[in-house]
Description:
Blueprint: E1 2-16, E2 22-41, E3 51-52, H1 61-81, E4 86-90, H2 101-116, H3 123-133, H4 137-142, E5 146-151, E6 155-158, E7 166-169, H5 177-186, H6 191-201, H7 206-209, H8 214-217, H9 221-227, H10 232-236, E8 240-241, E9 248-251
Helix pairs in contact: 1-2, 5-9
Amino acid sequence: xxxxxxxxxxxxxxxxxxxxxxxxxxxxxxxxxxxxxxxxxxxxxxxxxxxxxxxxxxxxxxxxxxxxxxxxxxxxxxxxxxxxxxxxxxxxxxxxxxxxxxxxxxxxxxxxxxxxxxxxxxxxxxxxxxxxxxxxxxxxxxxxxxxxxxxxxxxxxxxxxxxxxxxxxxxxxxxxxxxxxxxxxxxxxxxxxxxxxxxxxxxxxxxxxxxxxxxxxxxxxxxxxxxxxxxxxxxxxxxxxxxxxxxxxxxxx
Length: 253
């Protein structure tokens, strides 16, 4: 089963909740041609739940998703499944690229278990479970190709979009999302202005949005460059940043 990546066409920081989590307004688009893959495999090396991958998976979101389904009353079904199978992960989405790879893997695991074990969980319930795993997981469970996303990532509204073809570049650099947000907090920012722009951006197609200056579209581009100077060449080269980076893209002319 495919776990597709996403890109942020715009990302504006508009406030904070009581925990100082950042409120965002963003356009998420699903990327059809970039994905991880998850499947059940008969290749079993140890008892219980195990992940087979070239990628380090110790205590990652897949373990959390397994535990969450157990807590939701499906422990017997999962234990029976993983007494015979392992979970195979083929990781292709760059880590620390702002492409939601971990969140997409978590969402894919929930869908895989729901389908293979016939758990009969509705999309709405899956999205609520996903929100407990991470901010972006619900989007990947929504089935939407494009959506305006707000709050801390849990408020999702499908958008009838026009998306140009995007050419991605993946720098040999993993950006730490938490550190990029911390760097944003150190700078001068106008949350009110960001909120006004975000409301305007929500009504534009992605094609129209990508005619706007890169640093205006994504509030995290400047702090990302401040934290990772290597990214300055992409800012100056008029690339667009996805999420907190490091993946960047241009419109295919």
